Amino acid sequence: MAGTEGSGLPDKPAVFLLDKPHFQVRLQSDLLKVDLKDGARAEIEKLAEARPALRDTIGWMFQTIIPLDVHLWEIEKVTVESSGKVNIRIPHRRDIHIPLEHVEAERLVEKMNELIPIEKERRIERQLAEQVAEKDRERQKADTLKYRPIR
Domain containing 110: what range? Predict the structure, then answer.
C-alpha cells in the first residue's frame, strides 16, 4: 500500500488488520483505512462496462468512497449489529457500514473505541498548539511593524 497521501511518509503500522476476500480493513493508531482488493475492483469494473448507465455512478463511487481513509478523531460513534455489521457514525459525512463476522466486528469496535478518545484529545491539543503559534506569529509581526521606520 502507498504511504500517506502524497506526503512520502510510510503508513503507520496496523493496530488491527482484517483481510477479507474482497476488501481489507486496516486500523492504525490514528486512521481507519478500507481498501477494495484488485479482484473486487475488477468485478465492479466489469459490471460498469456491461451497463454503461452505471459507469458514471460507479466512477464517482471509486473517486469518493473507495479507498476510504477516516481519521479517528472524525468518528462520533462505532457500533456492531447482531449480524456483525460495523456502523461508523461520522458527522457531516455518510455513515460507513462494514460487513464482518460478529467476532471480528466486536474486536474492531473494541479497539476503535479504545483509540478514538485518544485521537480526539490529540486533535484538541494540536488545535490549541496551532492557535498559540498563530498568536505568536501575529504578535511578532505586530512588533516588527511597530519598530519599522516610517518613510
Answer: 16-146
The CATH number of the domain holding residue 119 is: 2.30.29.30
Helix/strand/coil for 145: helix
Domain count, the chain: 1
Residue 4 belongs to a domain: no
112 lies in some domain: yes
Question: Would you say 86 and 80 are in contact if contact means Cβ atoms under 8 Å apart?
Answer: yes
Distance CA 89, CA 128 (A): 25
- Is residue 3 a part of any domain in this protein? no
Instruction: At 58, list the grid cell.
Output: 460507479
pLDDT tens per residue across all 151 residues of the chain: 444 444 445 678 889 999 988 788 999 999 998 887 777 666 776 666 676 666 666 655 554 455 578 899 999 999 999 999 999 998 888 788 888 999 999 999 999 999 999 999 999 999 999 999 999 999 988 888 777 677 6
The whole-model pTM stands at: 0.67
Q: How far is CA 131 from the centre of its chain?
A: 24
